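ok here's the first one, seq then C-alpha cells
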Amino acid sequence: MASARFLIAGSLLFTFLQLRTPTATTARQWLSTAIAGTLMLAGANGLVCWAEQTVPSGLAALLVGSTPLWMVLIDWLFFRGTRPTVRVCVGLIVGLGGVGLLVGPAEMSDRMVNPAGAIGLMCACLLWSVGSLVFRRAAQPKSTFLSVSMQMLCGGAVLMVVGTAAGEWSRIAWDSISVGSLLALLYLIVFGAIVGLTAYVWLLRVCSAAHVATYAYVNPVVAVFLGWLMAGEALTPLTMFAAAIIIGAVFIINRGGQVHIPRVVHRLRP
C-alpha cells in the first residue's frame, strides 16, 4: 500500500512535469533522491506502517512526536548545524509533552505494547531525521516538485521490493477493497504525498531543522480537529489544553530564529 501510494504519486508528478517542461536529470541527482527516498519513505514511513499494526496509535503518535528532538540533535552533532538555543530546547520539550498530553495515558496503554513495534517507530524517527538532513545537503534538481517526484519513485520502488520479498502480495484481500479504502488511498496520494511531501521538502530548503521538525507536533493536533470535524469525535477541555501547549511550543521554537523565505520562494515553482 505504501509502495503504491508513492509510486503512483511520483509517476503522476514526474510525468506531468516532464510533459510541461522537459528537464534533464543527472545520475548524481537520482542517487541523492534515491538515498533520501530510501531513508525517509521506505525506511521511516515503511516502519511506521509496519509498527502501527502492533503499537497503539497513541503511543505511536508520541514516539513519532520525538522526531523534532532527534532532528535538531543530529543536525547539531553530525551535520554541523546550528547549536540549539535554550528557547528551542524548551520549545521541543514542551511540544513533546503536549503531544503526550494530547494522546493521553489511556490511548497509549489500551493494549500490550509490542517491543519490536516500539523499536521500529524509534528507528523510523532516526531514519526520517537523517534522511531529511541528508536531503538538505544533497544534489537536487532546482525544481522542488521534480525533486519530490524522484524521491517518491525511488522510495516507492524500494518499498515494492521489500513488500514483495516479505510475501505481502499473497496477503492482499482483493475482495475487501472498498470505495472508501480507494478514496483513502487517493487522499494519501494527493494530499499526503504530492502536496504534503512537496511542502515538507521545500521547507527543508528554506528553514532550519528545528523549524521544519515542528510538523511532528502539529500533525496530532490536525488529526484531532479533523476527527471532530469529520467523524464527530469529542473535543474535551484536556484536548484543547494540550493543543494550546503544542501550538505554544511551535511558537517558542519559531521565535528562536528567523526564517528568510522571500528570497527563495522562486524555488517552489515547477
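and now the second one, same deal
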Amino acid sequence: YYLSLIDREDPNDPIRRMCIPSLTETDMSGEFDTSGEADNTVQTGLQHKYAQTALILSTNRCAMYCRHCFRKRLVGLSDEELLERADEAIAYISSHREVNNVLVSGGDSLMNPNTVVRRYLSGLSAIEHLDLIRFGSRLPVTLPERIYGDAELLDMFAEYSKKKTLIVVTQFNPPR
C-alpha cells in the first residue's frame, strides 16, 4: 500500500525517500546500538530503561523498512533479541509496581497474529498497577487494512479498552 503512494516520476518524492534506502546507507560504520538497548535489557525481549515504562520486543517483522528506525540493524537477522514467551514479560511487569505503562513494540507489534496481540492484552490488562498499554505500529500508515479490515482486532481493542487505556503509537511522515 505505502509504495503505491510514491510519485514514480519524482526521484525526490518524500515517500520514496522515506522507505527506499539510499546507497549511502550501506555504510555500516558507526554505533549499532544507538539507544543503549543492551544496557536496559532485563530479560530477552524486555527492556526497562525508564522506571515507569517497560518495552516488550514482540516481533522483528515490519510492514516497511523505515529508514529512520534505530533497530534496523536487526532486519533479516535472528530473533534472539525478541521475547519468545509473553508470560515472562507479563510476570516481570506484574512484579515491578513502579511500571505503570508498557509499550509492546518490535518490529511492528501489530504484525503479530491476533492470538499474540490477545495474549498481551489479556495478561497486561490484568495487572492492577498498569495504567496504559501502548502498541507501537506503523500499520495505520503503511498497511491500514490490517487494522480497518480486521474486525477481530478491532473487537479485541474495544473489549480490552474497557479494562485499560489502550494507545496505538504511530507516526505519519510526510504529510502526503
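notes on #2: The longest helix spans residues 114-125. The first strand starts at residue 41 and ends at 43.
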